[in-house]
Amino acid sequence: MTSIIRSTQGGCWGSDRLRLRLYGSVFDPAVMPLIDRVESLQGVIRKVKRIEAMGQTGRSNYVDVTKFPKAGTSKLSTDEMPEAPTAPSTYNEKILANYVPVYVMLPLGVISNDNVFEDQPKMEKQLKELRAAGVDGVMVDVWWGIVESKGPKQYYWSAYRSLFALVQECGLKLQAIMSFHRCGGNVGDEVTIPLPQWVLDIGETDPDIFYTNRKGNRNKEYLTIGVDNQPLFDGRTAVQLYSDYMKSFRENMSDFIEAGLIIDIEVGLGPAGELRYPSYTGTQGWVFPGIGEFQCYDKYLEAEFKEAATGAGHPEWGLPDNAGEYNDTPGSTEFFGLNGTYMTEKGKFFLTWYSNKLINHGDEILDEANRAFLGCKVKLAAKVAGIHWWYKSPSHAAELTSGYYNLKDRDGYRPIARMLSRHYAIFNFTCLEMRDSEQRADAKCGPQELVQQVLSGGWREEVEVAGENALSRYDSNGYNQMLLNARPSGISREGLPKQIMYGVTYLRLSDELLKDKNFKIFKTFVKKMHADQDYCADLGMYNHQIGPLERSKPKLVMEDLLEATKPMEPFPWGEETDMKVDDFDGVLANLIRKLFSLFK
After folding, report:
1. Is 361 annotated as a binding-site member?
2. Which domain holds residue 390?
3. Is position 5 within any domain?
C-alpha cells in the first residue's frame, strides 16, 4: 500500500487542507503512521478493514511525495491536485500545543575537508526519507576549519550553499551550527576536521593559544578562553575571528534566512561545540569514567588567575596541583576527595573563577552572534554537555573539571541559563536518552537526575530548552526516555503543557538509522514527539513562531549569576512517557505467543 500526503497551503498535514490518497489493500505499518502500535490487535484489524475499504474505490491517482518544493512554495496548485476523498483529520488544536519538532543531525563529514558536497544523490535520497517520515528539519555543522581554511577572512561557502539548497528543496528546516572546534577525538567523531591551518601555524610559535593541562599537554580542539581578547591572529582576537565568521555566514546565507529555511543558529562555544573546557579527551588518554583534568594552565589563563587571586588578597594562591589525572576517581585525589580542596576557601575561589570564565566566554561570543544576526528571523542557541558520571558523588568531579560548578548546595547550570536568557538563546542539552539503570554503578552516574535539574533550571529562567541524545540509539527504551524528558508531565489535553522542550535533535543520520526495523521505530518516535499529530509546517501553529532577533539585554552583573546558583527542586517528572514507542514487531510477536498459549 502507498500513502500519499500533500499540503497545498504549507500548513499542517492533518488540517482541513490536507489531501490524502490511499490505495491498495496491503497493510504496511511503515507507511501507516495513523495506526497506533500499542493498540489491541482487534483495534488494528478494524483500522485495516477501513483502509481496505478506501482502497476499493478504484481510483489510483496520487501525488509523488518525493518531489518536495522549496520552502514556502508549492509546485502544485490546488487546481492541479488530483481528486481524492478528504481523510478524517487527526489535527487537534489543543493537542497540537504539545507538538515537539524533531530534527536530525547530518553526518559530520557531509561537506568534505576539501570543501566539496560529495555524494549529493545519496544525501537527497536520505533527506527525502526523513521528510516522508515527518521529520521537521536537520542540523548541520558549518565547520570553521573548512570554510576559512585558505587564509584569514577567505571564506568559501559554495558547498554549504549547495547543501542548504537541497535541504530547502526537500521541504526541511535547518539548524546551522557555527562549529569553531576541531572534529576528531570525541565519542562519535568519524572524521577529522582540524582548525584552519593558518590558526594552527600561529600555534606553532605560540602554543599557549590552546587549552593546556597541568603537565603542559596542549589540546588543539579549540582555542583557549585565555586568548578571547588577545590580538594574536593577524591583529584580530579570537572573539573577532568568531564574529567575522558569523557575519560572513549571514551575508552569504541571507536568502536562506529570509526564506525561513534557517531557523536556528547554534553557536559553538568549546570542544564538540559545547560550552565547556576540554577536560576529557580521548586524544590525551582519557577513558570513561575518568574525572578529567582542569584546562587552565596556558600562560594567558594562568596570568588571569594570578591577577584575580591577587585582587582577592591572596597572591600566594596558585592553580590546583592536587586534582589528579584524566582517569582518576574522585576519592583518589586530594582536591575531590572527602573534605577535599574543593570545599576550602581556596578551592571555592578557584572553582568560581574557572566556571565564571566559561560563562563570560559564552556571553561574549553570543553577544557577537546577536549583533551578527540582529533583525533576522532566527533563534540563537548554545549547547551544554551532559556530564552525568560522578554526578551522584559529593564533589561532582567530572562536572567541575568541565567548568560546571555544580554541587548539592550549588546549581552550576541555572547561571548558564540566566546568561542565555540575556540573548534570547535556546539552552540545548545532551544525554536525553540515558537512564541511570543503563550506566556503570561504580561511576555513580545520574543522567536522569542531571537532565531533570538542568531542564528545570532552564524553564525557571524562562529560556527555551532543547536537547539531543548523546549516543546513537535505535531502541524503544532510548526513544521513550527522550519522550519523557520532552514532556515530563505528559500530554496536556487543555493546550500548552507547563513544561515542554522547544525541540529535539536526533544524533545522527546514518545508514544504520535508515535500516528497515530501525527506521520504523524512529518514525513512530517522530509521531509521538508530535503528540500523535501529523507533521506541521506552520511553526506558529504550535507556538514556535520566530520574530526578528532583538538586541541582547544588558550584561548581567556577578551578583545576578551568583543568585542563580541557589539550588531548587526540579519540576515533577513522570515515571514513564504517556506517548510510548513500542517495537511493533516485538509487541506482535508477544501477542501471538500469548494467543498460542491459550490453546496449550
Report:
1. no
2. 93-587
3. no
Quick one: 534 exposed, middle or buried, by C-beta within 10 A (0-12, 13-18, 19+)? buried
In a domain, 523, yes or no: yes
Residue 467 lies in a domain: yes
Helix (H, G, I), strand (E, B) or coil at 188: coil
Least Cα distance to 536 among 15, 5, 4 occurs for 15
Flag whether 543 is marked binding.
no
Q: Find out whether 30 is annotated in a ligand binding site.
A: no
pLDDT for residue 151: 98
The CATH number of residue 436's host domain is: 3.20.20.80
Tell me how far apart the alpha carbons of residues 217 and 219 are, in angstroms, rounded to a whole number: 7
Asked whether the beta carbons of 270 and 278 are under 8 A apart, the reply is yes
The annotation status of 28 as a binding-site residue, yes or no, is no
First to last CA, the chain: 36
* Domains of the chain: total: 1
Residue 205 falls inside a structural domain: yes
Reported as a single tens digit per residue, the pLDDT across 83-95 is: 333 343 456 999 9
597: number of Cβ within 10 Å: 8
CA dihedral sign, ordered 216, 384, 510, 181: negative
Which active-site residues does the annotation give?
Answer: 274, 468
**pLDDT: which is higher, 179 or 594:** 179
Q: What would the pLDDT profile of 312-353 be if each residue is shown by its tens digit?
A: 999 999 999 999 999 999 999 999 999 999 999 999 999 999
469 known member of a binding site: yes
Sign for the CA dihedral angle at 576, 529, 43, 520 comes to negative
* Residue 519 backbone phi and psi in degrees, to 5: -75, -30
Grid cell of 518 as nine digits: 530501525
The answer on whether 430 is annotated among ligand-binding residues is yes
Question: So what's the pLDDT on residue 597?
Answer: 57
